Amino acid sequence: MGWVCSYTPLELIYAANFLPYRIEGHSKPIGAADSYIHPNYCQFVKSAIDNAIEGKYNFLEGVVFVNSCDAMRRLHDVWKRYIPSKFNY
């Protein structure tokens, strides 16, 4: 089960019998993410979208998002709409 923010309660993921996997960004120039989210959002969120669009997280059963900042809320919105996933919360 993927997780994005350090505020994610990993204990809940373990309790659901999933292995937490940290979704990370990259330091490369942003590719397609600027087409999905405003360019002023942080590099982490945009690079996480890039990685997801490229299919780097297709092996995950789902992703847990946390309502920690506006960028994370928008990341959830983009993921829910454009990234195929079995579970998003």
Describe this entry's structure for a reader.
With 89 residues, the protein is mainly α. The chain has a single domain (2-82), classed as 3-Layer(aba) Sandwich (Rossmann fold), CATH 3.40.50. It has helices at residues 10-15, 43-53, 70-82; strands at residues 2-3, 21-22, 63-64. The relative contact order is 0.22. The model has no long low-confidence stretch (mean pLDDT 93).
Distance between the termini: 11 Å
Largest sheet: 3 strands, parallel
What is the residue-averaged pLDDT?
93
Which percent band covers the strand fraction? 5-15%
Write down the secondary-structure element order.
Answer: EHEHEH
Total domain modules: 1
CATH topology: Rossmann fold
Q: Roughly what percent helix?
A: 25-40%
Shape: globular
**Strand count:** 3
Secondary-structure arrangement, i.e. CATH architecture: 3-Layer(aba) Sandwich
Low-pLDDT parts are: none
Radius of gyration: 12 Å
Protein name: 2-hydroxyacyl-CoA dehydratase
Family: Belongs to the FldB/FldC dehydratase alpha/beta subunit family.
Pfam families: HGD-D
Give a nutshell description of this structure.
This protein is 34% helix and 7% strand. It contains three helices and three strands, in the order E-H-E-H-E-H.
What's the layout of helices and strands?
Elements lengths: L1 E2 L6 H6 L5 E2 L20 H11 L9 E2 L5 H13 L7
Parallel strand pairs: 1-2, 1-3
Pfam families: HGD-D
InterPro entries: FldB/FldC_alpha/beta (IPR010327)
Protein name: 2-hydroxyacyl-CoA dehydratase
